[in-house]
Design brief:
- It is a multi-pass membrane protein.
- Belongs to the bacterial diacylglycerol kinase family.
- By secondary structure, this protein is mostly helical.
- The protein has one domain: Helix Hairpins (Orthogonal Bundle), CATH 1.10.287.
- Helix content is about 90%, strand content about 0%.
- Helix 2 runs antiparallel to helix 3.
- The longest helix has about 35 residues.
- The chain is flat.
- The termini are far apart.
């Protein structure tokens, strides 16, 4: 079973869980985003948001945290490949951070669409 299709998928899932745990344990940006996601979920429960609003909220949370995880991995790889400052590595890191920024802005916009009606009524 170890080298079967199912065995490889189970092992791969274990690596994914380990990676998510490492992100939460060691990366301050993911830790902050995780706390924000908990607070937003508490707000969703408090305001009684709809099922579709929950779906959009979880998609936004997943988008931001996944993008941040990819950014973290890319930065670690870039630092491993070229530990000293290099302008092209800096550019790559800036672009990856920009992707996280875009995801975060979209998440804030989604949160506005979800929560503004509850706050204004």
């Amino acid at each position: 079973m170890k080298n079967s299709f199912l065995g490889k998928r189970i092992r791969g899932g274990g690596y994914a869980i380990k990676g998510a745990w490492l992100l939460l344990k060691h990366e301050p940006s993911i830790q902050v985003q995780f706390v924000i996601s908990i607070l937003v979920c508490i707000a969703g429960w408090y305001f009684g948001i709809s099922r579709s609003e929950w779906m959009f909220q979880f998609l936004a949370i997943g988008l931001v945290m996944s993008t941040e995880g990819l950014n973290t991995a890319l930065e670690a790889m870039a630092d491993f490949v070229h530990p000293d400052f290099h302008s092209k590595i800096g550019h790559i890191k800036d672009v990856a951070a920009g992707a996280v920024f875009i995801a975060a802005i979209i998440a804030v916009i989604i949160a506005g669409f979800i929560y503004f009606p509850y706050l204004s009524s």
